[in-house]
Amino acid sequence: MRKFRMIHATEIQSAEVMKAPILHYGYKWSLKHGTIHNVSGEKGIRFNLHNNKKIFISSQKHTGFQHAVDQMLESRKHK
After folding, report:
1. pLDDT digits (tens, 9 = 90+) for 7-56
2. What is the dihedral of CA 43, 48, 52, 56, to 10 degrees?
């Protein structure tokens, strides 16, 4: 059984759109890219966390996903 984890906005140092590092679908781990959740699409968002961990999540609608993440990170700055 898989564990689920919520990433809080305070944990995120930065987020960037990038090409999927591995084209196979599923859950993977890479020394260079950290945890990879590749479910669909050729691109996704890599979250760089404050604890130096990296998490990549692929998405067919990566621009909308990036916009939502940017809004969340921007609202965090104003609090």
Report:
1. 888 899 999 898 887 767 778 888 888 888 888 778 889 999 999 999 98
2. -30
d(CA 50, CA 9): 11
In 3D, which of 78, 26, 22, 62 has the Cα closest to residue 47?
A: 62
Please give the torsion angle defined by the CA atoms of residues 56, 59, 63 and 68, in that order, rounded to the nearest 10 degrees: -70
Identify the CA nearest to 5 among candidates 28, 45, 37, 52: 37
Token digits of residue 14: 């930065």
